[in-house]
Write a sequence for this structure.
DNA sequence: GTCTATACATCGATAGAC
DNA sequence: GTCTATCGATGTATAGAC
């Protein structure tokens, strides 16, 4: 276990991609334990033996799928991060960033399924959770921290900790409202959340 | 499916409790799909037929376990919420509350497993996610909102939204550092987080 | 009510033909 | 390299003795 290579050089490249695509669909929908290799094979349009021939065993296939997702989903959380005019009003830049991150994540159902799996399997697959932290959370945190540090007019006492406040606020909001179906139970508009968050950070004058 | 009664009046009350305890242990450790009724029976010290006799099927048993947990874990997230001197310095009250919530959740591994399961299974068991929102998230949000609203000296423009900032900050911190094993990858002390959060909320002067 | 024994489906993984 | 066929283990659920 745990010897996932990126891909294979031999064997059919087309089938490899088909298996990865089918496995991704099934794992995202059902998690690890509820996904059988028969389902994966059927979703990929190949035989079960071919799946094993390409990826060894179920756990290795799961590893490859999750690592691929962790690498590819960075743009969803950070957006294209268009090199927007850095000299704009910080308040507008901040609320713009927050709104864009919120919209990106809300729109990308596959990303929500990915987060679900990562958290759900983080007990039995701690290495996968770490891959998420390294490839997604850490870059996002560092990018935001650099932005905060390069804007001394925000007068932030602790930019790195402020980033956690912002990330936590946004992530938990999507989790509670969308993924855990809290939208109708504890309703709150994205605008109110983003505005409040922005005001708290930019009005931080002591 | 979906006809979980609280308990049974007939049958052995002692065995019912043993089954619930064993099922809770196994479901929390492995999630729904990876937990077999054989494991539950063994953990409870009864036969598999007895488990079925008491709870009908696997899904009903899972429902009862999760609902019980959602009802009982309120104190973990809110603490005993000791009716602390309401006339204290809001800054101290706020950081005290945040610190206590953080410590409670970090200490209670069972609660972390519970959150893991809720999120992990929220796709296939949306009703269970809603039970979490109704029994845990909503009361916590409302309690905090009332506190914020009863302290006009905080000068919060939107207390309800500010509560989400605070909850999200704390919840995501525990998730990233503890549950997803990010402690060594993106380290940050609880004190810095709590201090920053408290300053942002209390220094919100426009 | 609780047990043992078992029915029947599906699981992960592999052997062997092509 | 890819398939069909199959193995042994394990899954949910139940029948029937006590």
């Amino acid at each position: 276990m745990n010897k996932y290579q990126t891909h294979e050089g031999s064997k059919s490249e087309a089938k490899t991609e088909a298996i990865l695509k089918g496995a991704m669909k099934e794992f995202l929908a059902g998690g690890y334990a509820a996904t059988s290799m028969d389902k994966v094979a059927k979703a990929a349009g190949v035989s079960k033996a071919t799946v094993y021939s390409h990826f060894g065993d179920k756990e290795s296939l799961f590893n490859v799928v999750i690592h691929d997702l962790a690498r590819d989903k960075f743009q969803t959380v950070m957006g294209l991060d268009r090199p927007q005019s850095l000299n704009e009003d910080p308040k507008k830049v901040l609320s713009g960033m927050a709104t864009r991150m919120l919209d990106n994540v809300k729109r990308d159902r596959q990303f929500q399924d990915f987060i679900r799996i990562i958290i759900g399997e983080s007990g039995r697959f701690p290495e996968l959770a770490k891959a998420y932290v390294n490839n997604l959370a850490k870059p996002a945190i560092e990018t935001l921290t650099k932005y905060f540090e390069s804007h001394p007019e925000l007068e932030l006492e602790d930019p790195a900790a402020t980033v956690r406040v912002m990330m936590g606020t946004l992530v938990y909001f999507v989790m509670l409202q969308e993924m855990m179906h809290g939208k109708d139970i504890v309703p709150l508009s994205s605008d109110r959340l983003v505005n409040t968050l922005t005001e708290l950070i930019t009005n931080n004058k002591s």
Q: What stands out?
A: Chain A has ten helices and no strands.
